[in-house]
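Standup notes
- DV: blocked on the single-chain target, sequence here:
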Amino acid sequence: MKRLKCPKIRKLSADRPEASILQAKKELNKLQQMTSQSISFSDEIEQIVAQLRQVAAPSSEPFVFTSKLTENENLLRTIFKDCGDIEFRSFYADGKKALLVYLEGMADTSNLERNILKPLIRQTRSNNVNSGGQSSLFTSMKSISEHVLEASSMSVITKASAAIEAVMTGNALLLIDGLSEGLSISAVKYVKRDIGEANNEHILRGPNEAFNEGLPDNIVLIRRRSRDTNLKVQILKIGERTKTSVALLYVANLVKPGLVEEVERRLGLIKTDKVLASAKIEEFIVDHPWSPFPQLQTTERPDKVLAALYEGRVAIIVDGTPATLMVPCTYSTIMQSPDDYTIQPVISSLIRLTRNFAAFVAIYLPAIYVSVVSYHPGMLPTTMAISVAELRARTPFPSFLEAFMMEVLLEVFQEAIVRLPQRLAGAATMLGAFVVGTTIVQAGLINPLLVVVISITAIASYSMPSYPFNLALRWLRIPMLTLASILGLYGVIIGILAVTIHASSLRSFGESYIGGLFDIDLLSDWKDGIFRLPAKLLKERPKEFGTKDQTRIGEEDG
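- DV (later): unblocked, structure below
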């Protein structure tokens, strides 16, 4: 048998000496460099195209997603450029490249793993085992949200603007190659303060829960107290840059017709780049921004908000702040406290009368003192007039200057106490009350009687249920002092008339600020205004708010 000869294999370098292994490696490295450069150049071109498409898109028609994942990803990377906390996580779902975009820290990563990634991977494996190919469930985001994912809240989006808002609010954005739409998935991890007590509105009897900075928690605190389906909640976005969530709450079958629309209109007219607190909203929507009196009622108590809603009023809750606004606002609502409804009606009525008298004292007592001492000492009893004259003879300053200096000193101490840590506030109070007060009296700089007058005035202002109203009373003392120093008691009378006329001219969303006190048609509101009658007699809601249903207690309940 004849054996076949195997042809002799010769090395390539033997035929071509220049084709050495080293040379081949060099050429291969050059080819790899060219390939990587071309890929990088291609990515840069796609990013530039994404920027051009974003800029070229009209503002009325924001850029919509395409079916190419690379284009959508480049657009989002361009928008979120230099945002180190934005995470882009790539993976494969049903053989297609997918992308998950979320804000690190605001999105709950365990929620993402449990409700998004695991269901997608599980469905992909099931498709490979059962059908050996792609599933019809991945043909649209709607199908994925209905049959694959397990998140509690999902919405299909097609515009980049909606995708940006979803990511920046803590939701996750899912994109899949071949689909020209995205899926916003609820995955927000709320970082919030625990529900605590209302430090500024503490009461002796009754609940002391207070709002925190989380809008969902604040809405839940109200919903938990009422199962009424007529209690409506509308969510608005305010702030060109911050896109702050603002909740509008009202009882549909009670609120005055047109009030909700008016509140929405004023909120819609707000043009600002940021909204960080409810006070910002208040400045934009009040009727008289130059008035010292608060025209929107502020509270941190859920029970107080709910009581206002069932009087036909509207509540405005801003995300990121515990202070809730209530409109309309009148003098009667400001002077009411939740404590008034936890004690006997007779005692509550006396406390309200005392509170109204304290408001008068907080504004006018220093002015009355200056006018009587400087212009009308004959109005005092002889013995008291002699004592005041002796005290006045020991001080080097006129009464107006004394009162003005004491007012300024009091305001400085109050501001210092508010700004100091709580542990130091008590020490500052003792220092201001005893050390400084005693020293200036012993030095003969201030009349001791004036120290008593200013102290009574400060205590009277502290009895106000509303801190903004307290501030208004404190700063109204200065112009009243000025009028008293120039015109005496006539100046005080002019000041009283000026304040009354100004308060009468104020309107809060169409309602008179003090109309409930003087309007004959609203005399029935006195039953829960200056006074408080027993609950069985309060069968009607306040007329000043124009509620649809005036009946509070039915005949069978009376």
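- Follow-up: Residues 21-56 form the longest helix (36 residues).
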